[in-house]
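User: Structure please.
Assistant: Input sequence and predicted structure:
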Amino acid sequence: MTPQAAATRPRVEGEREVEIFDATARLLVEQGYDRLTFDAIAAAVKASKATLYRRWAGKADLVIDTLKHLKRLEGRHPVDTGSLREDLLALACGEGGLTDEMLVGIIGALVPALHRDPDLGRAFRERFIGPKLDAAVVAFERARERGEVGPDADLGFLARILPSMGTHEMFVFGTCVTRDHVARIVDEVVLPACRATLADH
């Protein structure tokens, strides 16, 4: 298909797009990533596979867009409470955060496939995890300006502590992560790690 022909194809957007995302999320949780197919999604929304291919090149692209939709990554205003602790709680416990049960179920369905499917793993890191970590790093940058974090601290490393521990609790220990769990990780691990970066200054 020529670029000109592709450009004239109707777009999947609005309520139809949301319907496809919702069906993808439900089927992903029910069937897992490996068994998820465009045929099943198309049947669930009473559409043709061609409708899906007009928008998404493959299953990995659709699944990552579904995650971004559920996490409301597009158009979200940056979190800035004036406190690193409250910023981290807002990022982790807001809509689509670590405490979002639907999102946790979807990520749980993806985890077994992340290392087997290179396209999925790459898209997950670049288009889903990347923007979330970028938002967290911005919060740590503001904290550094306020003197809550040392000037030479590795902000990317600090930003990974909370999501790493939270997802480990979920998928290794089967913990239902709540706001209290998140607050405990922040108070007992993340903030002490930040204070340690101030020790030599």
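The longest helix spans residues 118-145.
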